[in-house]
Amino acid sequence: MNPQLIIDAAFIVATLLFIYGLKRMSSPVTARSGIVVAGLGMVVAVIVAFLYIADVNPKAEPHLTTNIVLAVVALALGLGWAWWSGKKVEMTAMPQMVALYNGMGGGAAAAIAAIELFGHKAHGLEILIMAVLGGIIGAVSLSGSLIAWAKLDGKIDGTWRFPGLQAVNGLILLTILAIGGWTVFNDGQVPMPLIAGFFVLSLVYGVMMAMPIGGADMPVVISLFNAFTGLAVGFEGYVIGNAALMVAGMVVGSAGTLLTLLMAKAMNRSVSNVLFSNFGAAGAEGQGEIKGSMKPIDAGDAGINMRYASKVIIAPGYGLAVAQAQHKLYEFVKLLQDAGVEVKFAIHPVAGRMPGHMNVLLAEAGVPYDIIYDMDDINNEFKEADVAIVIGANDTVNPAARTNKSSPIYGMPILNVDQAKQVYVVKRGQGKGYSGVENELFFADNTNMVYGDAQKVMVAMIQAVKSLEGGGH
Amino acid sequence: MDATTAITGFVALYIFMLAAFTGYEIIGRVPAILHTPLMSGSNFIHGIVVVGAMWALFNASSTLEQAIGFFGVLLGAGNAAGGYVVTERMLEMFKPSDKKKG
Question: Minimal CA–CA distance to A173: which of A139, A130, A148?
């Protein structure tokens, strides 16, 4: 049988499995099987791709054995390293690993473009346009994602910007587009150094794009780069005439774009705002004096009060995950539930480091997803709650977002924890949140502060409630 | 074989358009709790680029092309495998309360 026919048929099956898998991933009940289905599609595609060796470029014939060995070694190394690193990474570090793997995909797309352009293989207006665009986007995604990974992993600190950054970036982008345009209009016949410059500048642009962006905005950027890689893969799929790459790439390109917009919206920021301005740089001053004082309370007392409440809502933040306190928190929740307390989790759209990240972290601790509620579903219930407990969250519960127009977070939707009868805030110290804004919730009359590491606080609460039950020890 | 394609012009546009619509539909109706796993899952899906990189490497005819192709396949394989493992680990944790173990 014609190998090309087998390849085409197998790729259709793989594409179908990808889309069906993604669809299954979009419901919590079937999500697990979704990734397995999609994974099966990938295995089929990679195995069948070896049939490509039956019909290669005559110029490549003499190198075929070497090329096959190179492919097998590269596959084994890439797969082995990624499998190992993916298995050992902590759940809190997931976002940066997603960034890293995403950057690798962008790099692979850029590599396809590089081979086509360096080898003067791509011809024709449409193909060259796609090759050039995919090359730029893939390279930007590679270097940008690496910066995002390094920042989230704490390998690079802070943001980096200088006056005229936008102008420099604009100049770089113009140069890239000029070389790209020249390549297209000369049917790909341009000197090698120029093509090399094209890719180097694209990589530089990715770095310049990601470096000025601060920690809180990083998830939006990772999601954006994810969409970028999808687009680059789709474009390069067109260049090499592979419909599976085109469909899979474009599905991710559009899904990723939508996800990016949803994330930006959850923080009341536009994507261009994220890319071109600095969170908190303009704002931190200009807030009024906050009246009242912070009232500390002992962790054990707070725990016992919750034991005798009828409804408790928990608002977790990244501080919970950093302290690795999810498991202790759920142990405490089970104690409350055993005592007949109704407990719910309220998740702000950007709790954690990415939308849904907090859900993953809670799921890791075994918290069932049906007591976890999205902000919009639970915000009206805070006024009926006896206690709202904020653990390691700050900006997402700051009432200034509702009232203070001069605040940099003004307009961001927040959890209405301040409407609960009693608010406990578990916090390491008196510092400010990511945005650098003071939080008036901490000074409110119905708020008490529980100072300490979230894990130690949870242990103290558990002990207090247990000793109550055990008859006072 | 030079890079030629049977999918030209408007047929390509149709493919892109329908694929974009599919992606939009899939994400649009998803609860926020699945956004991170889905982002990771879509990150895995574009790992299919490894197949394109394999094609490019098989057709490489100079040392430079072979070197670039090698890195392309290496990176693509990392994208696919890493994306799979991370997504699978995240989704493994989603269990309803009636089925949870201890």
Answer: A139
